[in-house]
Structure formats: structure tokens, C-alpha cells
Write the C-alpha cells for this entry.
Amino acid sequence: DVRDYFEPLMKQTTAEISALQKPLEEGATHPEEKALIDEIAAKRKLYLSTRNAIFGLLDIEDPGAKEALESKLMPIALSYVASISNFQQWQQKQADEALVATNQRIDNAQMITVALSLLCLAAGVACAWVITHSVTQPLARAAAATRTMAGGDLSQPITSDGRDEVAEALQALGHMQHSLHGVIDGLRQSALSIRT
């Protein structure tokens, strides 16, 4: 009656464990992992053979069968469960190590991202300074030339380098200076001719 009760449960459990164990065995790649799976398989085989032998004794109503359940089968079952626990602990250790490695990669990627961001920021600042400097210097020269001309000094040459709008403005100032110089020379000539 004990066997009748437990046998369907044991068959179901055995089938489920076999289904779970097969992919583990096939997917094992690490030598330590293979060794742990082999240990589980060996202890499972010992457990199954001992269980079947004790159930055989129960079938013939051997008086030592119930004592064999406690003295033989239970220690083997505990050893089998311990081997599964060892494998689980090994898997947890591997998962923890993988997590640490992944976190390290994330930290490295974040540091690289920060470094690249700072590099881009520095390049942006440098480009902004060059562009600003290329605009403000010619504008400062134009302002100085305008102030000089406003002060009546048309002798300072106005030079322009480049082809942008600021260079065009400097060229226009140069032309204006030249024109004003011509107008003033014309006025002088007129004034001299009136005197004479």
C-alpha cells in the first residue's frame, strides 16, 4: 500500500527530474559544472537503485524494509539533495561573478562616455573660441579703423583677410577711407585754387 501510494508520484518526479537534468548535462561547458552534474547523476542513480531495492523489500513485506528506508535511503537521498544544492551554489557563484563582470563593464562604459563627453565639450569650446576669435578680431579692427577715421586720420591702412562678411565690411571701410581721402584731396585742391 505504501508503494501503491508513492509509486505514481515517484514516476512523475523521476520523469520531471530527467527532463530537467538532460538539458543541464547537454549545456554544461565548464569542467567544474560537468563534474557537479556527473556527481548529481551518480547520486541520483544510487538513490534510484536503493529506492527500488527497498521497495522490492516492501513488496515481499521484509521486516527490515522500513528500517532500510530510514538507515539507507534517507542518507542517500540527503546526499543526492546536497549534490543538487552544491550545483545550485556553483551556479549562483557563476551568476554573481557574471554580475560583477557586467557591472565592471557598465562602469567602464560610463567612464568612457564621460571622457568622450568631456572631450567633445573641450572640442566644442575650442571651436567656439576659434569661431568667436575669427569674428571679434576683425570687428575690433573695423571698430578701431572707424574710430581713427572719425578722428580725422585717414592715413592708417585698413586691411582685410578672408572672404566672409566681416572681411567685406573691412574692404568697404577701406574703400570709404580711400574715397574720403579723395574727397578731402579734392577739397584741398579746390581751396588752393580759390586762394590763388
Notes: The chain is about 90% helix and 0% strand.
